[in-house]
C-alpha cells in the first residue's frame, strides 16, 4: 500500500473521530471506549498494511 494512501486514511479517521467527539453528544465513558477502540483498530490495520502483523500474530508466550 502506498505511503500516501496510509496518510490519507489516517487523516480521514482522525478527522472523523474528532467530528464524532466534538459534535455528537455522548457520555464521556462511551467516548473514551470509542476512542480506544478506534485507536486499537487503526493500529492493527496499520500493522497489517505495512506487513508487520504476521510477526505480532506469530508471537508465542512460553513458560
Folded structure, characterized:
It is a single chain. With 63 residues, the chain is mainly alpha-helical. It has one domain. 78% of the residues lie in helices and 0% in strands. The protein contains three helices and no strands. Helix 1 packs antiparallel against helix 2. The longest helix is centred in the middle third of the chain and has 23 residues. The chain is flat. The model has no long low-confidence stretch (mean pLDDT 90). Keywords: Membrane, Transmembrane, Transmembrane helix. InterPro entries: THIVI_2564-like.
| Cα gyration radius (Å) | 15 Å
Uncertain residue ranges: none
SS content category: mainly alpha
Described by strand count, sense and barrel closure, the largest sheet is: none
**What is the domain tally?**
1
- Based on Cα principal axes, name the global outline: flat
Element order, helices and strands? HHH
- Count of DSSP strands: 0
Summarize model confidence as the mean pLDDT. 90
Helix content: over 70%
SS field, number of helical segments = 3
What is the straight-line distance between the termini?
A: 37 Å
Beta-strand portion reads under 5%
Amino acid at each position: 500500500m502506498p505511503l500516501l494512501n496510509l496518510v490519507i486514511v489516517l487523516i480521514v479517521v482522525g478527522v472523523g473521530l474528532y467530528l464524532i467527539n466534538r459534535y455528537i453528544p455522548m457520555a464521556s465513558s462511551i467516548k473514551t471506549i470509542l476512542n480506544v477502540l478506534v485507536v486499537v483498530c487503526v493500529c492493527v490495520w496499520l500493522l497489517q498494511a505495512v506487513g508487520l502483523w504476521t510477526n505480532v500474530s506469530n508471537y508465542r508466550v512460553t513458560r
